[in-house]
Write a structure and sequence with these properties.
Number of helices: 5
Family: Belongs to the ZNF593/BUD20 C2H2-type zinc-finger protein family.
Low-confidence stretches: none
Distance between the termini: 17 Å
Shape: flat
CATH superfamily of one domain: Classic Zinc Finger
Helix content: 40-55%
Subcellular location: Cytoplasm; Nucleus
Main location: cytoplasm
CATH class of one domain: Alpha Beta
Number of strands: 2
Keywords: Cytoplasm, Metal-binding, Nucleus, Ribosome biogenesis, Zinc, Zinc-finger
Structural class: mainly alpha
Bound molecules: zinc ion
CATH architecture of one domain: 2-Layer Sandwich
Order of helices and strands: HEEHHHH
Pfam family, one: zf-C2H2_jaz
Largest sheet: 2 strands, antiparallel
């Protein structure tokens, strides 16, 4: 269970604080500015953020997200189950 908690803590960090990407001199921006949806590397954060605004990226994002990007909570609510007891905790994540 501890590993799960650690993974969640990592996911909650702002993206620019994550340091999971290995440095690679052969890649633009040392491989630190990556769009995992498009499998592309960028020279710096500004270029990457510009890329995030492009139609091409958004289309890719949609394709990868699939037709039903719902959380389990959404599914429960939609099924008329109401808020689970631990609802507020989930909401604050
Ligand atoms: Zn992209």
């Amino acid at each position: 269970m501890e590993e799960v908690a650690l993974a969640l803590a990592w996911l909650k960090k702002p993206e620019n604080e994550r340091s999971a990407l290995p440095l690679d001199e052969d890649l633009p921006g040392m491989g630190q500015f990556y769009c995992l949806h498009c499998d592309r590397y960028f020279a710096n954060v500004a270029v990457r953020d510009e890329h995030f605004k492009t139609k091409r990226h958004k289309k890719r994002l949609k394709t990868m997200a699939g037709p039903a990007p719902h959380t389990q909570l959404d599914a429960d609510l939609a099924a008329g189950m109401g808020m689970p007891d631990n609802g507020p905790k989930l909401m604050s994540m």
